[in-house]
Amino acid sequence: MNSASPQTHRTVALVGASGSGKTTLAEALLHRAGAIPRTGSVEQGNTVCDHEPEEIARHTSLGLSLAHLDWTGPDGTAYTVTLADTPGHPDFVGAVDAALSVADVALIAVSAVDGVVAGTRSAWDAAEAAGVPRVVVVTQEDKARADFRGALAQLRSEFGEHLWALELPIGEEAAFRAIADVLSEEAHVYDGDGTHHDEPLPPEAEAEEHAMHVEVTEDIVSHDDAQLEAYLEGEEPSAAELERTFAREVAEGEAVPVLVCSGASGTGVDRVADLVCELTPAATERDGRILVGEGSGGSELKVAPKEDGDTLVHVFRTVADPFVGQVSMLKVLSGTLRTGDKLRNATTGADERIHGLFRLRGAEHVTAGTLAAGEVGAVAKLTGSPSGSLLWTRSSGTARPAAMPPRPPVYAVALEPASQSDDEKLPVALARLTAEDPTLVVDRAGEYTVLRGLGDTHVAVAVERLARVFGVHVETAPAPVAFRETIAGSASVEGKLKKQSGGHGQFAVVQLNVSPLPPGEGFEFVDSVTGGAVPRQYISAVEKGARDALASGGPQGHPVVDVRVELTDGKSHSVDSSDMAFRTAASIGVKAALAEAGTVLLEPVSSVTVTVPNDLQGAVLTDLSGRRGRVSATEAASDGRARVVAHVPEAELTRYVLDLRSITAGQAELTITPDHYAKAPSAARA
After folding, report:
1. In this protein, which residues make up the domain named Tr-type G (predicted)?
2. pTM of the predicted structure, to 2 decimals
3. Spatial CA neighbour of 142 closest among 174, 178, 170, 113
4. Domain assignment present for 2
């Protein structure tokens, strides 16, 4: 398939709460466009976008899925559209961020039955943070208890009066078969095949529709001086003229159209496609943004989407496929990408070759010879380019995509390999898993491998993918709390090593003063030796031995921190002393000091920030108090909600994200970051 003009390309991120009908709408759009012969259903597990086994089993989207379609507008304009279907579950918000990082528009799905829920707010905020124009579509209008007008009132109350309904349903629930077009003041009446024909508005809909038409028209013409002047003189702009002006407002974020449809029956689906294409900016009308330079900073650079520019490609998501290998979803920010191109990864430094370009339609690969600036596609086997990479034609320099919102992990499990073979393969599999999904984090806690994510479902799906895709089987257990110890008082000790077994022996004696440091100071080594009692070449070995002893654990079995070790004196032998002898002697001495002075158990304490509706602040504060939390601040967030900041022991946070969602019905936002260590209560256990 040849690349279409990027002037008519749209990448549409389908976002919204879980259960709002995003995947069903994607299925209906694909069918209406002729891309698929029949529609599947989420319940039957045969939709284009929910094609992974984990999604089919759970009947919900868990990852980012792309679906390409061709669309012809009412005026004959041919568009290419890439739908980016995203999960509504909060554990998988990383996929939403990835989709929005390349989207030309965010299509926010809101159920006519459920209205505005926590996931709606999250989707709205994510699109706003990404700077992407928004269109709201009220879905499931054919279901029992559907209430478009109630949903519209909620939307305007929650997000502002600049949300304008361009369509009104004529009939609701099972009677939903027609739509009143607010701009043209016509009724689109739908036939059984998803097509529509136009009729005059029925009398019962005229008054409401006309009132809405006047209100929307007055807002639109107020943004165009020529239209406003003509309107005030009694000249009514045509629907096409109103759409052109309204499109400028949408692109600038000054207006958000609200549409209505049913993905299940097909009513209104074609109008969703028409209006998304007509009212939103093309891929070539929005500059990309990258960060150029070394380190965590870098200077921001805008990239104009020119077909004749240098080739620059954003790999925004990778997925490991057990049959094809790694599939990299990408957007061409500049230039034209062709099969056979050789590019350099500006983020990792790896050299990559484009083996074969294609567009994705769920699991289907649709061959594409080229991709022009602004277009989205995919390629297989880019082994050195994880999610969040930039590929370009330059032979040097570093760059990366503009930063996405930080999503620090809030839930963790320890992984226990099922066999020796699994243990050996686990590190590589985890590296590939985290290359796909940067919101997964792997670290070590003592002898345990710990997998951290955004919730229990996030981690559970990752473990399932470890087995299915990478062939690595693990059991999970609660992540261990990373306790530490510190010395309870000061101790002066001798560390001595004296061994003779023929030939060179081992001899070293050190005199040490070991004492506590203030919390958070870590480790301090002081050399107070005079007169060469310990030769200079062995001083660094003494320090290493002290560090060895602290890292290997104190009397309670945990690494020791906040300790000062002072070397005051010692003895050496001209033949039998060595670096290893003094390192061992120092380790013996420090362990003796810890045993003599005793240690205090320390527990990790995290900084917890919860943003929640004001009426739920009290419940959050009560729950934090029950977790030994110390609230340091309560303040008003910029959106009118409350923000609570507290310090909470890590041992109390094992299931906090799950409990918080239960307490707040999913309306809270949570961040957890390690902060400091504090003395643990006597009841604490490792």
Report:
1. 7-284
2. 0.90
3. 174
4. no
